[in-house]
Write a structure and sequence with these properties.
264 residues; alpha+beta; outer membrane lipoprotein receptor (LolB), chain A; 2 domains; two-stranded antiparallel ribbon; 15 strands; globular
């Protein structure tokens, strides 16, 4: 009888310990998620949540997409953790391995773009709104945008002085007040210039698709601007062959090939 009572007591302690361990794991997980989301203001958190959640996004390590340009497909592949990037086009390949920026011209086609400016540009537009969850970002309320009789609240995004090559750039995410889904992006371009700019360009984000439970752009529409406000459609960019994964890309794909030029 004593032996049976001992076995029962040990089993009960084992079950209790396992339950406590399970509860601790759940509490730890919830605490980590609370810490992650609590560092952001309520309005931008609402936007992140409407697009699948910043925690879900932060698990991803690879992003690849294709954009059709006049000379053919431009394929961008990025390591979301290191921001190493490869932009492959019919006439050139632009690469960044985390330290060195390089360009490889194809078939004697001279590269005439601005590699420093273009690196990461399409990634930044495509990865909205999650890309503004990076470190070193300052969030403020912005004046709402009214378009076609509907008003969208805004979040102004600016950067600490030592962040990126254009820390004076600013972005405004405008979102649907009810759903939290992003609807517009206003942005300035200050690369190579001193100080901030008050000249905003506008992109409309009203075409989304779900990939791995993340709501990402299917296309983006640039608008003409008059008196600081969007007026009519200027151009549309569509995204194809989107790949997003929790697995990191091979580092070797970002390495500079023989014959490529280093961009200083």
């Amino acid at each position: 009888m004593k032996k049976l009572l001992f076995v029962f007591t040990v089993a009960l302690l084992f079950v209790t310990c396992k339950e406590n361990e399970k509860q601790s794991t759940v509490i730890e997980k919830l605490t980590k998620e609370d810490i992650t989301t609590s560092i952001y203001p309520e309005n931008i958190t609402k936007v992140f949540d409407a697009h699948g959640g910043i925690d879900n996004w932060n698990r991803m390590k690879t992003l690849s997409f294709s954009v059709n340009k006049t000379n053919g497909a431009e394929i961008t592949t990025t390591n979301l953790k290191t921001r190493a990037e490869l932009i492959d086009t019919p006439t050139y390949t632009l690469g960044f391995d985390g330290r060195t920026l390089w360009v490889n011209e194809k078939d004697d086609n001279e590269y005439k773009g601005n590699a420093k400016f273009y690196k990461g540009l399409m990634l930044y537009f495509y990865a909205m709104p999650f890309i503004v969850g990076d470190d070193g970002i300052i969030y403020e309320d912005a004046e709402p945008l009214t378009f076609d009789w509907k008003t969208y609240p805004g979040v102004l995004i600016s950067y600490d002085a030592d962040i990126g090559v254009s820390p004076n750039d600013q972005y405004i995410i405008y979102y649907d007040a009810d759903s939290g889904q992003m609807q517009w992006l206003a942005y300035t371009v200050t690369y190579g210039k001193e100080g901030k700019s008050d000249k905003f360009s506008y992109i409309r984000y009203n075409d989304w698709k779900s990939i791995y439970s993340l709501i990402l752009p299917n296309s983006m529409t640039w608008y003409k601007v008059e008196e600081g406000k969007p007026t009519e459609v200027a151009r549309v960019i569509e995204f194809d062959d989107v790949i997003i994964s929790e697995d990191a890309p091979e580092n070797s794909i970002f390495g500079m090939p023989e014959g490529a030029k280093i961009i200083e």
